Amino acid sequence: MSITVCVVCRESAEKAFPVGSFDEFKCPNCGYYSVNRQLIEEMAAAKQIFDTERTQQYLKIQLRSDQVPAITRIEATKHELISGSLRNR
Question: What is the pTM of this model?
Answer without folding.
Answer: 0.87
